[in-house]
Amino acid sequence: MQKTTTAALLTLLFSLTSQPVQARYAAIVIDADSGHVVHETEAAQRWYPASLTKVMTLYMTFKAIESGRLHLNDTLVASKHAAMQPNSRLGLRKGQQISVENAILAVATRSANDAAVTLAEHLGGSESHFAHLMTEQAHHLGMSSTSFVNASGLPDESQISSARDLAILSSAVLHHFPEYYHYFSTTEFHYKGQILPNTNRILRSYPDADGFKTGFTCGSGYNLIASAKRNGHRLIGVLLGAHSSNERFEQMGNLLDIGFEKTAAGVEGSHVSQLRDDDFAPPPFQLASNRCAGSAVQMGADSGASDREPIQLKPKERHARSNESDNQQQDNWSISFGADNQKSQADKQLAHARHALGALGNKGQVEVVKRKSKGKSAWKVVWRGLDANDATNFCKHLQTSIHDCTVLAPKARPVASRTQSKSVKQVSHKKVVKHKKSDRHQ
Questions:
Q1: What would the pLDDT profile of 139-161 be if each residue is shown by its tens digit?
Q2: N or C: which end of the chain has fewer CB within 10 A?
Q3: What pLDDT does residue 16 have?
Q4: Superfamily of domain 24-273
């Protein structure tokens, strides 16, 4: 009877501790300079980090370079274990050589598991020992909820972190190794004649965003760390558990918007290190087991489709308009400027523009986009959601610092350019549509 009672109690205890926590997502935004929390949702909730793990892998790599144990031009050799890593991967074969710098770029831009393991084995002797060193470093930084068992973030129920801990790690990268942060900003990785774009789309979709990392496993959902700097304020955002890739990028944009609005208003909370993380329940398994293979059920996935609502951090504002014509006239004008080979240069132009515009720059929505013209690609700043007067005033204010500001009428090609005239002209829609088709997408 006693054995039966004990077994029943153990079964009950296991069922209570093994049930996944139904946190829908976790998020945090911190001021990168002060470390104060600007916004958070269940930031201390334990979570599977997925490939955000690789930020620590690179932190350890930068630390080895800084100490002189490793150099950017050193040659690494891929082992059989590294070559057998699943996607995402660079495609290294057993015995193939790769420079430290190319391995860093492969990890930062392509989330290459084979490159991450190659770095880990070189620095730690084995991936498992390197993971032990990663965990020690994490705890030294104050990442009290974090435990690593591999260098890549591939699924393992013991590989755990939190939004809070990952924000602390990202801040440490920025402050301890600022000279290497640019690897997270690289939009394209050139390797063996190939041009491999960075998988982190926030670099292209959000103005002022200049770095960090994506991650995905079935257990974690779609994760993202991003950092952006605006008007002298740098923010770090972490979002864990989005249910699609598009959702993580859209909602990270909303997170950063919220962060910049709050910092501009002087609203900040306590230091990130003061967030409580005393809930030791298992992480949630974000995506249902019928969407994922492998050990989904063992790691806590339910068998049905997910019924969670989409993340809505900042619902889009809806403006009532009397008719479509009024809508076009009032807020569908835009301006564009810049044509830079690198996004970082376009971001600098945007920073100059914000400074020149002052309070006027609070209007509209900004994008830094890559456009192709005459067979060449360049990064441009596009400022949307303006009325005709604002668009003209923007370019007038920018004429001393930005020399190619162009006003764009609703659904039309550029209608005036600072390079053509010192005064900004407004051209009617009828005149615009008469231009040649070949000019419309410049």
A1: 999 999 999 999 999 999 999 99
A2: N
A3: 38
A4: DD-peptidase/beta-lactamase superfamily (3.40.710.10)
The DSSP string of 279-302 is --PPPP--S-GGG--SSTTTTT--
Give the pLDDT score at 288. Answer: 60
Q: Which of 79, 88, 111, 161 is catalytic?
A: 111
- pLDDT band of 76, cuts 50, 70, 90: very high
The boundaries of every CATH 3.30.70.260 domain in the chain are: 324-433
For residues 258-274, give the mean pLDDT: 92
Tell how strand 406-408 and strand 333-340 pair up.
antiparallel
51, 79, 152, 220: the active-site residue: 51
Q: What is the mean pLDDT of residues 29-51?
A: 95
In percent, how much of the chain has pLDDT > 70? 78
Environment class of residue 213 by beta-carbon count within 10 Å: exposed (0-12), middle (13-18) or buried (19+)?
buried
Active site residue 111: yes
Q: Which residue has the tokens 């600022």?
A: 178
Dihedral of CA 350/352/357/359: which sign? positive
Vertex 104: Cα angle to 98 and 108 (nearest 5): 135
State the virtual CA torsion across 369, 373, 376, 379 in degrees, nearest 10: -20
* pLDDT for position 426: 43
Q: Give dist(CA 149, CA 132) in Å, integer.
A: 7
| Start and end residues for every CATH 3.40.710.10 domain found in the chain | 24-273
Q: Which of 54, 213, 262, 380 is flagged as catalytic?
A: 54
Q: Which residues pair with 406 in a beta bridge?
A: 336, 417
* Short-list 115, 100, 110, CA closest to 62: 100
Band of pLDDT at residue 291, cut at 50, 70 and 90? low
Distance CA(398)–CA(395), nearest Å, equals: 5
Q: List the Cα angle 410/412/417 in 5-degree steps.
A: 100
Class of domain 324-433: alpha beta
Tokens of 149: 């068992």
User: For this structure, is 54 an active site residue?
Assistant: yes
